[in-house]
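> example.struct
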């Protein structure tokens, strides 16, 4: 039976580290990062060498090497997320610096020399982006290979579902890092790339929902789509507010969408995504209501979490809508 999920996701040390990353104290998050660094270092050391053109059975060697790289993706992703989380939690301190006394203040690159100097937010964000882009590159390569195998009628379903779910999740976290770094144009680009991937997730969940009942997976997929759309709106608002839309060259994103140069156009563009986000959020809220009416649901904990996430997203939506209206009024005043 083909492997569908990286083995690392079931490792107790990995599970412990992801729990630590979700806490609200710098020390705990740093400990989670330290555990992941150790796991990643040991896994990279045990990796098979990449195949060369002269190797016998090159295709098989290439598949083995890529599979071993996919096994590293959870560590790369969680390290990227963890370092972003370090910045967010650290920002709770009045002086913006870490209060951690943990030895994990060393720069978290497995290949870097030992260094006990404290990390800055900029360093953490830069290294976070490095880990996340590495994860994204591996996933993209694996997806391209899977598509080629499917066309050759030699499709191997190994990791297929994991890859399809991990790509938008990684893109979204890359966008979050860009937002935290103030790279709003890049954030908008990454969020926009997420939208069609999240739409595909909603379509799959809808097709799987054969009996017509609203499923928890359909709710989750819809909420994630709304989240990506809200991310686009938020990033575009910051582009306009920071004048990135005036100073930046016209940008064609990787998703093939043109981000316009003129500030007014960017604002109108943001309004378009806002309307889409509002529609999908309404769908999510409606689905929450339907699922809450079901009695004896075995997914009560997951449903409660989705309900809270949807409510949090609604709050962000209200904030974005208010900012858009204020910007529109300011623009209209200038054009009178």
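> example.seq
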């Amino acid at each position: 039976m083909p492997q569908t999920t990286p083995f690392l996701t079931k490792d107790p040390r990995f599970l412990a580290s992801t729990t630590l990353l979700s806490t609200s104290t710098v020390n705990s998050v740093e400990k989670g990062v330290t555990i992941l660094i150790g796991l990643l270092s040991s896994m990279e050391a045990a990796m098979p060498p990449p195949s060369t053109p002269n190797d016998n059975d090159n295709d098989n060697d290439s598949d083995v090497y890529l599979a071993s790289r996919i096994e590293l993706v959870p560590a790369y992703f969680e390290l990227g997320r963890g370092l972003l989380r370090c910045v967010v939690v650290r920002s709770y301190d009045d002086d913006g610096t870490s209060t951690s006394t943990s030895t994990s203040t060393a720069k978290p690159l497995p290949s870097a020399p030992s260094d006990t100097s404290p990390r800055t937010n900029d360093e953490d964000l830069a290294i976070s982006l490095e880990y996340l882009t590495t994860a994204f590159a591996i996933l993209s390569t694996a997806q391209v290979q899977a598509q080629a195998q499917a066309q050759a009628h030699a499709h191997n379903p190994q990791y297929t579902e994991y890859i399809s779910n991990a790509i938008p999740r990684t893109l979204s976290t890359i966008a979050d890092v860009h937002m935290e770094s103030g790279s709003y144009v890049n954030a908008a680009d990454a969020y926009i790339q997420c939208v069609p991937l999240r739409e595909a997730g909603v379509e799959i969940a809808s097709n799987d929902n054969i009996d017509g009942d609203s499923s928890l997976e359909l709710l989750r997929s819809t909420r994630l789509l709304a989240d990506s759309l809200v991310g686009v709106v938020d990033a575009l608002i910051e582009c306009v507010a920071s004048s990135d839309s005036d100073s930046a060259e016209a940008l064609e994103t990787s998703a093939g969408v043109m981000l316009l140069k003129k500030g007014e156009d960017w604002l109108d563009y943001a309004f378009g995504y806002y309307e889409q986000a509002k529609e999908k959020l309404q769908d999510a809220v409606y689905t929450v209501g339907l699922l809450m009416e079901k009695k004896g649901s075995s997914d009560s904990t997951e449903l409660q979490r989705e309900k809270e996430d949807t409510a949090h997203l609604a709050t962000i939506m209200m904030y974005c809508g208010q900012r858009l209206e204020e910007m529109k009024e300011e623009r209209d005043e200038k054009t009178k």
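> remarks
DSSP finds eleven helices and two strands in the chain.
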